[in-house]
Design goal:
The protein has 229 residues and is of the alpha+beta class. It is 33% helix and 25% strand. The chain contains ten helices and eight strands. A six-stranded antiparallel barrel has the order 1-2-3-4-7-8. The radius of gyration is 20 Å and the shape is globular.
Length: 229
């Protein structure tokens, strides 16, 4: 068989099915949670994107998530997020903390939601969310997007970007983006805000979180070319 003929099988359905049968994909299969929220660029808080987190809890104090722009089979892989407990966040040096954001407002506002299958009723989603939201309420995330798909939809061009979350009303995401998300998933962010008031305890963020609120400065990654070793 000619090399070109062999290579043509690479993108075929049969080749994909064979791969699924032959390989384990254990890290991917270990994912057990889908969270939908929104991220804003750390250096440009006018740019907002929907972010679908597919997460695995490596321990009670450390989670890791791969992030896509949707839940569809052809979704773009746009970044990663590491989530740590307040205890771990508090142990970080000040220089490191600037890369991290709190989840307090995301949870209290209803912006961060569990995304479930269409057949799951809203009441069941709300019940399933409570342990997750209670846990995530006091956590902190470090998010890097490798694909700025809002300006480069076809290819992941340019350097990675540090992403942040929201800490108060009026910061975003845009109303039309929020409405589109809620409509697609059959959820109501405003209703979730009210519901969560009933079970989330009062919480004050850890010292050093969301420093941009005080400094008015964001974090932007830059490429630094250096001599090879």
């Amino acid at each position: 068989m000619e090399p070109e003929t062999k290579q043509s099988a690479y993108h075929s359905t049969a080749y994909h099915i064979a791969g699924e049968a032959m390989m384990s994909f254990q890290p991917i299969k270990a994912i057990h949670q889908h969270l939908c929220g929104f991220h804003v660029y750390a250096h440009d808080r006018t740019r907002h994107v929907e972010a679908h987190h597919f997460c695995k809890h490596l321990s009670a104090e450390f989670h890791q998530c791969i992030i896509y722009d949707s839940d569809k089979p052809d979704a773009r892989l746009i970044g990663i997020e590491y989530i740590v407990s307040e205890k771990i966040f508090a142990s970080l040096p000040p220089e490191e903390k600037k890369y991290w954001h709190s989840h307090k407002y995301e949870i209290e506002s209803g912006l961060l939601q569990l995304s479930t299958k269409e057949i799951v009723p809203t009441s069941a989603v709300d019940a399933a969310e409570q342990p997750a939201m209670l846990e995530l309420h006091k956590t902190y995330g470090k998010t890097i997007h490798t694909w700025a798909f809002d300006i480069h939809p076809d290819l992941p061009l340019g350097p990675p970007n540090v992403m942040m979350s929201y800490t108060g009303d009026g910061q975003g995401p845009p109303e039309e983006m929020l409405k589109a998300r809620d409509t697609y998933w059959g959820q109501d962010t405003a209703a979730k805000r009210e519901l969560r008031k009933g079970y989330l305890p009062p919480y004050e963020k850890a010292e050093g979180a969301d420093e941009w609120e005080k400094t008015g400065r964001g974090v932007k990654l830059a490429v630094d070319e250096v001599p090879l070793r």
